[in-house]
Amino acid sequence: xxxxxxxxxxxxxxxxxxxxxxxxxxxIVLLFIIVPVKAYFTALFAKAHxxxxxxxxxxxxxxxxxxxxxxxILSKKSGLDLKVNQIEAVLLSGGNAIDMINAMKLxxxxxxxxxxxxxxxxxxxxxxSLEIVKSATESVTETISQAKxxxxxxxxxxxxxxxxxxxxxxxxxxxxxxxxIKSYVVQEIIKKVYLLSKDEVFNDxxxxxxxxxxxxxxxxxYILKDVRIANISIGKNLANEMEIxxxxxxxxxxxxxxxxxxxxxxxxxxxxxxxxxxxxxSLLEAEAQVPLAISQAIKEGRFSVMDYYxxxxxxxxxxxxxxxxxxxxxxxxxxxxxxxxxxxxxx
Length: 347
Prior knowledge:
Helix content: 55-70%
CATH topology of the domain at 140-235: Tetrahydropterin Synthase, Chain A
Mean pLDDT: 79
Distance between the termini: 183 Å
Strand content: 5-15%
Number of helices: 14
Structural class: mainly alpha
């Protein structure tokens, strides 16, 4: 009853205004909850206006609208002609818009061509666009160790080469690595050294470093700025090694020829021995046929037993004479040897 009495004390107008006030307050609270008012007014006061609808939509993507505002403000202060939609696209893709804009600012100060398309691609692919641009403003030193080249007088030189490189941002994403430059430099230095003598190279080592640097950096992510010979030493004396190899080759060839001649002689000796054995075998075979032939002749009456004994006596007499002759020859040889013996002088 008391509540009704209090309500009765208010007029209809007061009730209406109270309801309107409550609704407005609720709308304001709801506005602060749904709409990023702080981000909106921050952009507005920094003269980098972004519509409240865009900020609200950005917030609905579960991203912090202040990142968009701060990046847009930074682009305005840096003098970069970037649109809100471009920055928004980088943030929605997971990139760091602040780093990207700082990278573009640094590239602009260093007179490096870096449009938004390249900067955004660099940031989205590497997530370190600012570091890449910082490295592009400074020179990079690379070394090639123990490169070998041969002079025209066949002296091997061992070279340590120093390269001064600079990052080529437009070709960073799709250019070849520094290995291509190293390969080109070594190839050119080998050609230069081959045209000079050892003394000429030692007198002016950097004369072999003069070639087309632009060609070396073609299709790579780096620009070749300078080439220097850091160290040079003598490797092998290829002329002496070639001479030694030639002598060794001739020795091996002579050995092969000697082996061939030896094998040929051995083959001839083997063939001669084979013929002798064949002759002996034929003689033995013929001798084995003699008794059979004599026996056959006796049976047929063409050769008598007395003839056989006469033949045997003749063979025995011939053998005796041969033995006597050979014995006399041996005595003569022994006596000649005794005569040649020197017993010294006797006083």
